[in-house]
């Protein structure tokens, strides 16, 4: 437990009260079997924020057993969808009631802007939970037109125990993005939050119990990917795994699933999304959109529009205004309402971004602004813009996950499409144009799971989200996300005396 106060931190740094630091298994907060803990640090200062129980294989075994018992014997998968939905709505009500506290946890743990957590992250998460609460009693099979003297229909049944492994950039949203449809489907879950940001997930487990979610239905096991995460993906009694994170780890999860029980896998992986701005665009609007697309959440966004392509007719004007916009983007304490951007999540990510900036310079790109740490303490980096970027450079091909824009020029629509698709990823894309013909043509030509036209980061629970190519497969959001947590069963019954066939 950690109380309010500075706890040795820099003067003026607000530290929220941290109430839950143990594993949550079978409805109880418990120590790890080993007794081990790990540090979660405050990216504003680099200081230790809390010591959290560290799950290992033994703890995952206990969590999976609790989830399996709850699936096989508790009322959760057997109650009506309407009743599950009522409990999920109570869960959402409790999250709403604790919005300020939860936003502060993510702010201190992940370096996320506090005011956006209050008005965006937490409200969007409860909207997601309510969306799937409404879907819980609408899981429908089909009546089949079976040939011969038979009748047939399909049932959609919960898959069982779902493993959920979430990243650190949106701890709250990612928790509910995966857990909400699993709950609606009647599954039980074992959640491994990112080791960098475990605090809000533990709080959500507490609120779920308060809402009436039965013991064992939600289990939360903070720990590291190579231990706790690997134990989930290789477990013979886990029926599916949903993962958001890097492409490299996605490969390991698929291998682990194949070597164990061939559990179903869904992956939302890396991105290197293009933002394509045409000559007819309103330049000021396009500049503001590009700044948002690259620097929002300090660039720690899987769909960040980090490759910005601008048509030659407005390129020079755009470059000038983009630099001015980046320089006006205030980097500072995420608890300060005047800050536009907080620190990178931890020292490792901070150093990784700075290393990519050095790659950009050494490979011949021109650094126009930024490129340096933005504070003496903490993991702050200036908004950074490169020009003279070519498609073969690391900063154009590899996901940086930081506030780094690669700004490039194009001439024709055909060239823009070719450049946009010159990536192994395919998560998202943005198009800025006043031409409906151009918007339609490019949106159908770019190989990406989401395309935004004259907007960016426009998410909604009803809009399926996922990737093409090495950005993964499977969809979050929308009713399509329920498919990850449902099995389809065909039932064929002999019907010898039917009056018609």
Automatic annotation (TrEMBL):
Q: Does the keyword Oxidoreductase apply?
A: yes
The Aldehyde dehydrogenase domain is annotated at 30-491
Q: Which GO terms describe its molecular function?
A: aldehyde dehydrogenase [NAD(P)+] activity
Q: Which InterPro entries match?
A: Ald_DH/histidinol_DH (IPR016161), Ald_DH_C (IPR016163), Ald_DH_CS_CYS (IPR016160), Ald_DH_CS_GLU (IPR029510), Ald_DH_N (IPR016162), Aldehyde_DH_dom (IPR015590)
The UniProt record lists the keyword NAD: yes
Provide the active-site residues from the annotation: 268
| Residues spanning the membrane | none
Keywords, ordered alphabetically: NAD, Oxidoreductase
Q: Which PANTHER family match?
A: ALDEHYDE DEHYDROGENASE-RELATED
- Please describe the quaternary structure of this protein: Homotetramer.
Concerning its family, UniProt says:
Belongs to the aldehyde dehydrogenase family.
Can you name this protein? Aldehyde dehydrogenase 1
Give the originating organism: Urochloa decumbens
């Amino acid at each position: 437990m950690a109380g309010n106060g500075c706890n040795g931190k820099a003067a003026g740094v607000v530290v929220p009260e941290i109430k839950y630091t143990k594993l949550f298994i079978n409805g109880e907060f418990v120590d790890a079997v080993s007794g081990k803990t790990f540090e979660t640090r405050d990216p504003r200062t680099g200081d230790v924020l809390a010591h959290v129980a560290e799950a290992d294989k033994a703890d995952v075994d206990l969590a999976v057993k609790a989830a399996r018992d709850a699936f096989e014997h508790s009322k959760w998968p057997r109650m009506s969808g309407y009743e599950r939905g009522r409990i999920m709505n109570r869960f959402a009500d409790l999250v709403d009631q604790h919005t300020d506290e939860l936003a502060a946890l993510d702010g201190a743990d992940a370096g996320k802007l506090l005011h956006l957590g209050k008005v965006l992250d937490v409200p969007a998460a409860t909207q997601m939970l309510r969306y799937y609460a409404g879907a819980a009693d609408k899981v429908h099979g089909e009546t089949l037109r079976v040939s011969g003297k038979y009748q047939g229909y399909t049932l959609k049944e919960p898959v069982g125990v779902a493993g959920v492994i979430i990243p650190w950039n949106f701890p709250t949203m990612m928790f509910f993005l995966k857990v909400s449809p699993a709950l609606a489907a009647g599954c039980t879950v074992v959640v491994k939050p990112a080791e960098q940001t475990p605090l809000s997930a533990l709080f959500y487990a507490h609120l779920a119990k308060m809402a009436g979610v039965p013991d064992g239905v939600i289990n939360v096991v903070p720990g590291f990917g190579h231990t706790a995460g690997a134990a989930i993906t290789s477990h013979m009694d886990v029926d599916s795994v949903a993962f958001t994170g890097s492409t490299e780890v996605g490969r390991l999860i698929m291998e682990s699933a194949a070597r164990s029980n061939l559990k179903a896998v869904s992956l939302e992986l890396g991105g290197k999304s293009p933002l394509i701005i045409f000559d007819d665009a309103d330049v000021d609007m396009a500049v503001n959109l590009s700044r948002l697309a690259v620097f929002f959440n300090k660039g720690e966004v899987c769909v960040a529009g980090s490759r910005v392509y601008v048509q030659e007719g407005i390129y020079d004007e755009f470059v000038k205004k983009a630099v001015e916009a980046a320089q006006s983007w205030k980097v500072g304490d995420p608890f300060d309402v005047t800050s536009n951007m907080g620190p990178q999540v931890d020292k490792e990510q901070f150093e990784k971004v700075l290393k990519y900036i050095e790659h950009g310079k050494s490979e011949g790109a021109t650094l126009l602004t930024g490129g340096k740490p933005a504070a003496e303490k903490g993991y702050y980096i200036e908004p950074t813009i490169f020009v003279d970027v070519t498609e073969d450079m690391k900063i154009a091909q590899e996901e940086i996950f930081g506030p780094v824009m690669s700004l490039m020029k194009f001439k024709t629509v055909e060239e823009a499409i070719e450049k946009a698709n010159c990536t192994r990823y395919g998560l998202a894309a943005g198009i800025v144009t006043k031409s409906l013909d151009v918007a339609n043509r490019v949106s159908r030509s770019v190989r990406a799971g989401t395309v935004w036209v004259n907007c960016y980061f426009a998410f909604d629970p009803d809009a399926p989200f996922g990737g093409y190519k090495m950005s993964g497969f499977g969809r979050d959001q929308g009713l399509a996300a329920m498919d990850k947590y449902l099995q389809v069963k065909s039932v064929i019954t002999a019907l010898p005396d039917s009056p018609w066939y």
